[in-house]
Amino acid sequence: MSGAWLGEQRPIFIKALLDWLGASTNPEVMAEVSARLDAVLEFTIWVTREFLLGEYSPKKNSSDLFDMFQLQYLAFDKFVIVSSDPDHTHRTQQSSQANRIMSFDQFLETL
Hints:
This protein is mainly alpha-helical. It has helices at residues 3-21, 27-36, 38-52, 64-71, 86-91, 104-109; strands at 81-82, 101-102.
């Protein structure tokens, strides 16, 4: 998926989400939501792209919905996700929050 597509579609997705929530869609709010939900957006974009290409099966990846919900915790700056699931890292590698998804060993090194 090209950077141009992401640049065009991300604001449309954020605006639709904020409209659905009944929240303000002013540029400052949209930028804040985009930054806070960066990993969620990257994950969702990855899953959507793979599904549209026919290379993704929701039945084989039924836990992805829970993964997406977990990624929302990264909206809080002090949260990290400790996981042994390599899909988390792979599917969010372009996210500015990817460095807060770590293995148990990586987490222990931060203590």
